[in-house]
Amino acid sequence: MKHLKRMTLILYNSYDKSRWHEAHKRAIARAAPICYAFNCNLAIMDFPCKKEDILSIETTIGNSGEYLKELIDNNRFSIIDKYRAQFGVPIITTSKPDERKLITPREIANLLLKKPCGIFVGLGRHGLPKNIIKLSDYQLDITEKRVSLETCTAIATIPSVISTYLKFL
Q1: Which residues, at least 6 apart from 38, have a Cβ–Cβ distance to it below 8 Å?
Q2: What does the pLDDT look like over 32-66, one tens digit per residue?
Q3: CATH number for the 7-167 domain, one of 2.60.120.200, 3.30.43.10, 2.60.40.1180, 3.40.1280.10?
């Protein structure tokens, strides 16, 4: 089997940055089992919380938080306020990609053979801010059809589609 670099799903908080909301907790709880299942790291960016807040999330999702705990215990979960070089190539997700920066899920799978990739998903109605969009090397439309997905649907789809391509490389 080929040695693959790690993919990190980065949930970017564009909700309230000053208050720890139930929506933040639900997004993390929903993303953790997906990341665990598809061998992906999980990072949260600009969330108004500390590690203790994450450890105290009570949920029935993901086998009562078991997968979130697994990610934390195996150093595959990060709370960040800026992009880290260890995440590799920064990629944003959007249903309206700039054609000059467009990358397909298959191309990301090929890239993961050489480099790690950090894939941003914006939470909330405002999506990703301009500074994150400018930071990105590539823009991914996971549907490849310009279909806008609800956030939780996108969170599930991105690692699963890219992992499927990885199986066939």
Answers
A1: 159, 160, 162, 163
A2: 999 999 999 999 999 988 888 887 777 666 555 78
A3: 3.40.1280.10
